[in-house]
Amino acid sequence: MLSYIESGTGVPLVWIHGFPLSGRIFERQLQIGGVRHIVPDLPGFGRTALSAGLTVDTMAEDVLKLLDRLAIPRAVFAGLSMGGYVLFAAARLAPERMAGVILIDTRETADSADARRDRHEMIDKVNVEGTAEVISSMLPKMLTAGGMSHQEFVREVMESASPEGVSAALRAMAERPDSTAVLQSLTAPCLIVVGEQDPITPPTDAERMQSLARDGRMVIVPEAAHLSNVEQPDVFNRHVEEFLRNVVAGSLQV
Ligand code: MLT
Predict the structure, then answer these.
(1) For residue 141, how far is its CA from the centre of ligand 1 (angstroms)?
(2) Residue whose CA lies nearest to ligand 1 atom number 9
(3) How far apart are the C-alpha atoms of 117 and 246, rounded to whole Å?
(4) 82: CA distance to ligand 1 center in Å?
(5) CB–CB of 38/4 below 8 Å?
């Protein structure tokens, strides 16, 4: 069962965090008004215990079960990076539950053979040495040089991840399927947000996703790297608010 926090009233919006983070990474998004924010910690991260046999599908099922528990049939789903991979799995399993989709610094493709090999090397390292190397290799990609004031916060969130959770998530990401067809079949309106200087999932990924989405719009956030929501929360939140107000509220009954 996923630990989660809930805040506000309005359109249900579930925020699915990236790797190796927790729901805390969305703390500045809770300011967005008119929204019932649901912010889970995925298994092995934050306050949620790791479950056996973790895959993007089991994570998506956990998120869908959380919405069942809260009696929310349809919601806006927002996924940051690994959270986007989980969002695509949820969209494959239960497309009817998507009232809107927000893809944040993520991509629809599966890992290349090289990326998969790197993940398995990292798993070996984490199993022996813990998460220090994952954190030190990822931290510089999360924020631009100008965003270093957020570094301690991001490091603290990363350090709360257990080595077992990190290994399991690396394996789940390596094994995730390609989601091109899922993205193409999405009928829910889609907002794609990317940091201008994101080195992990750069704007070219966002542009490709926009060209594949039936009802997609894209925003490039200036002066932001992978964590565009942390680094430029005001700009990020404004785009989400506009999407919810102008697109989701106008075209769909949540
Ligand atoms: C993330 O931010 O969730 C990860 O960097 C995604 C990935 O490694 O593919």
Answers:
(1) 10
(2) 82
(3) 43
(4) 5
(5) yes
Residues with CB under 6 Å of ligand 1 are 18-19, 81-82, 173, 200, 226
Q: How far is the CA of 18 from the centre of ligand 1 (A)?
A: 6
Residue ranges in the chain modelled with pLDDT below 50 = none
Q: How far apart are CA 106 and CA 194, in angstroms?
A: 8
User: pTM (2 decimals)?
Assistant: 0.97
Compute CA distances 76 → 10, 132, 174, 178, 214, whole Å.
11, 34, 26, 22, 17
Q: What is the pLDDT of residues 1-26, one digit of tens each?
A: 999 999 999 999 999 999 999 999 99
**How many residues appear in the chain?**
254
CA of 88 to the centre of ligand 1 (A): 14
**Nearest alpha carbon, ligand 1 atom 4:** 19
Q: Which of 163, 152, 242, 188 is nearest to 79 (CA)?
A: 188
The SS3 of residue 156 is helix
pLDDT in the model for residue 63? 98
What pLDDT was estimated at residue 242? 96
In the chain, which residue ranges form alpha helices assigned H by DSSP?
56-69, 82-93, 113-129, 132-142, 151-159, 163-174, 180-185, 203-212, 228-231, 233-242, 249-251
